[in-house]
Design brief:
- The protein is of the alpha+beta class.
- The protein has a single domain, classed as 2-Layer Sandwich (hypothetical protein PF0899 fold).
- The chain is 26% helix and 32% strand.
- A 3-stranded mixed beta sheet has the order 2-1-6, covered by helices on one side.
- The longest helix is centred in the first third of the chain and has 18 residues.
- The mean pLDDT is 90.
- InterPro entries: Hydgase_Ni_incorp_HypA/HybF_CS, HypA/HybF.
- Pfam families: HypA (PF01155).
């Protein structure tokens, strides 16, 4: 379960940014998960709640955006969305000549803080 490590690092960043902006607490965090990141959103939620305990982010709301599995098909010459990140064939022409466009990481998109 690498989600715990990802959450620990994310909370470090959130707390640094919150402190730099004079926050008393973190109200919400928006995270984007890449389609090919191998991050389970349910595990991420669970781990996020755990690592927030005793921090400025304790009790904050976590918003998760899951990116679609998007690829460029060489044969069709267009962007296609895959139904599963495990199936690497174009849904239009069944070609396997796909270039992955979707991200394989996790990003903190936004942090909402309370300064009072």
């Amino acid at each position: 379960m690498h989600e715990i490590t990802l959450c620990q690092r994310a909370i470090e960043i959130v707390e640094q940014q919150a402190a730099a902006n004079g926050a008393k607490r973190v109200i919400a965090v928006w995270i984007k998960i890449g389609a090919f990141s191998c991050v389970e959103s349910s595990s991420l939620r669970f781990c996020f709640d755990l690592v927030c305990r005793g921090t400025l982010a304790e009790g904050c709301k976590l918003h998760i955006e899951e990116q679609q599995a998007e690829c460029w098909c060489e044969r069709c010459q267009q962007y296609v969305h895959l139904l599963s990140q495990h199936v690497r064939r174009c849904p239009q022409c069944q070609s396997d000549a796909l270039q992955i466009v979707a991200d394989d990481g996790m990003q903190i998109q936004r942090i909402e803080i309370d300064q009072e």
